[in-house]
Each structure stands twice: as C-alpha cells, then as structure tokens.
Amino acid sequence: xxxxxxxxxxxxxxxxxxxxxxxxxxxxxxxxxxxxxxxxxxxxxxxxxxxxxxxxxxxxxxxxxxxxxxxxxxxxxxxxxxxxxxxxxxxxxxxxxxxxxxxxxxxxxxxxxxxxxxxxxxxxxxxxxxxxxxxxxxxxxxxxxxxxxxxxxxxxxxxxxxxxxxxxxxxxxxxxxxxxxxxxxxxxxxxxxxxx
Length: 196
Ligand code: GTP
Ligand code: MG
Prior knowledge:
By secondary structure, this protein is α/β, with parallel strands linked by helices. It has six helices and seven strands, in the order ββαββαβαβααβα. The chain has a single domain (6-195), classed as P-loop containing nucleotide triphosphate hydrolases (Rossmann fold).
C-alpha cells in the first residue's frame, strides 16, 4: 500500500464521538507496551503521529488516524498493565468492547503479541473474543529485532501453544518497528480487508 497521507482525526471514549464519514476501519489490540502505536507510525512512515512511550499505558482513548483519506487506523489502549487502576481498566474494557461489538465500519483487527514470549492469558482472551465476533484477524508478533536468530524459529511454536491458528480468516506476521520488517505485508493485509 502506498501511503499518500496520514493525519490524526479524533479521539473517542464512546460511540457518539466516533468518526461519522463511514470509512472502513482497522483496529489494533494488544498488551500495553507491545508496540501498537509504533506500528501505526511505521506503517504511515511518521515518527510521532501516534504517541508512543516506554512507559506502558500511554494510549488511553480510541484514537482514529485517517490514512490516504480512505480508511482509519484505530489505536486502542493496551490491556494487562498492572498500574492502571481497577476502575480505569473496567472503563477501558467497556470502551473497547462497545467499539468492537457495535462498529459496522470495523473490517479487521490486528492483534499484537510480543514475539519473545508465549502469548498471555489476556492475549488468548482477545484472540478468542475476536473470533467470536467474526472479525478478520492479523496476529502481529512484534519486536522481532530483539530476537536472536535461534529464537526466531520458536515464534510460531509459541503462538500455537495458545492460539488456535486453524480458525478461518487468521493471518500471522512477524514484525519490527525498528527494522520495518514485513511492513509491506502489513499494508497488503490492510488493503485487502478494507476492500472487502
Ligand atoms: P500502550 O499505548 O501503553 O498500550 O503501548 P503501545 O502498545 O502503543 O506501545 P508503543 O508503541 O508505545 O511502544 C512501547 C515501547 O516499545 C516504546 O518504547 C517503543 O519504542 C518500543 N517498541 C515498539 N515497537 C518496537 C519494535 O518493533 N522493536 C523494538 N525494539 N522496540 C519497539
Ligand atoms: Mg499506544
């Protein structure tokens, strides 16, 4: 996918704040600090369009980024961050659930997992939830620049311990926002889903 333009559009915590122009949307989900906001920046080739941080819990609202004036990437607060209060976590959970369950414009979900680890219980719940909602899923194993060559072969095996990859409509990519590995394939997947 060729990126011609990208811009921050709007942040939302509830439905009446979502964009109203009826364009397709692709959302990102994953643990805090896994690299969701970084993936957006890498895809659109901007350093700081989506705010990133080495501190988990940076993204706290649904942030809509308009790309090529034709679709939105939706940055979503991460889960599994212990320092976020119970109350906030519940609010995030409900906000994400409302969005994923009701948004007709949503054409696919990118679930990011850290390629160095076996996916967590929360990752598994998100994966099964997306299946239940019948969303096309792209599993992105992030930060592969941090892996030694010998560890690379284990990434898929680690995934399979927790994710049933035989479901329909699931693709898997390894990825790095540092080396931009597989950014072309990421764009291709998005292109395909927003066209469906
Ligand atoms: P929340 O907003 O808290 O949910 O986090 P996030 O998933 O948006 O993570 P973010 O993109 O802010 O990245 C978290 C940290 O990981 C930052 O310090 C990034 O620089 C770093 N990071 C992200 N992607 C990569 C990657 O592919 N490789 C390496 N080495 N670091 C990365
Ligand atoms: Mg973020």
